[in-house]
Specification:
The protein has 8 helices and 9 strands. It is of the alpha+beta class. The chain binds coenzyme A.
């Protein structure tokens, strides 16, 4: 993606002004992030989302333990988002999935994958997707969000491994990367066991287009 065009199409004029004044044609983080909108994913976005995930994460993304909790399921109702740039292209993606914490345990959301177009990294798009996802999850009444990821990144949104010591993923994962954020205080009190998929199942034809 051509960032310069992206910004011009997005209507941010400060980049052009400062490039004349300072000889720097790079748009700022704020300008790039400000030119994308975080919106609900539609069926028309699926192919672009999958291509972006392949670009950002490579083929190993399909072998992750989290994938066991997602395969054959739909994301939690209203919890699939994309970052759409001014030209309508998919610049980032995040989805959240219904799980239970242990057999018959409390409900929670599993977040992932989160990914941003590699050519637009570090412009704040990942953060915008995360903030939107957390806000919507809270608004819809979800009590907690879990994910497997890097604490140095997700810590800024309030995620930590402090409350996940008695929880486990259904497959290989690094324990210190299982992170959680309580949206309702105490939601993870006493939570223990292996996460289980609890999402609505995909129909056969949906499975073909979702993968
Ligand atoms: C991780 C990812 C979603 C971040 O999106 P982004 O739009 O680039 O992130 P933001 O612009 O909101 O934040 C960028 C900041 O996060 C930091 N960051 C990015 N990934 C990080 C990581 N894994 N650990 C620690 N910090 C990280 C960047 O260094 C940058 O720091 P700065 O603000 O001090 O410059 C994106 O880099 C990506 O798609 N990566 C490949 C897929 C992936 O790894 N997904 C996450 C699975 S855990």
């Amino acid at each position: 993606m051509d960032i310069a065009n992206f910004i011009v199409e997005g209507g941010a004029s400060r980049a052009a002004t400062s490039s004349v004044a300072f000889g720097d044609t790079s748009p700022s983080r704020e300008e790039i992030a400000g030119a994308v909108a975080i919106v609900a994913e539609t069926a028309a976005d699926v192919a672009a989302r999958e291509a972006l995930l392949d670009d950002a994460m490579g083929p190993k993304r399909r072998t992750k333990s989290s994938e066991k909790l997602r395969r054959g399921r739909r994301p939690s109702e209203g919890m699939a988002f994309i970052a759409r740039d001014a030209s309508g292209s998919v610049a980032g993606t995040v989805r959240l999935w219904d799980v239970t914490l242990g057999e018959g345990g409390p409900a929670a959301l599993l977040l992932g994958p989160l990914a941003v177009d590699p050519s637009l990294k570090s412009a704040g798009i990942g953060s915008a997707l995360m903030r939107h996802a957390i806000t919507e999850a809270a608004r819809l009444g979800h009590a907690a969000i879990l994910l497997v990821g890097d604490a140095p990144y997700y810590g800024r949104f309030g995620f930590s491994a402090a409350r996940t010591g008695s929880l486990a993923m259904p497959g290989p994962y690094e324990r210190h990367r299982l992170l959680a954020l309580e949206l309702v205080e105490g939601a993870l009190d006493g939570a223990r066991g292996t996460l289980k998929a609890a999402g609505r199942k995909l129909k056969a034809q949906e499975q073909a287009s979702a993968a």
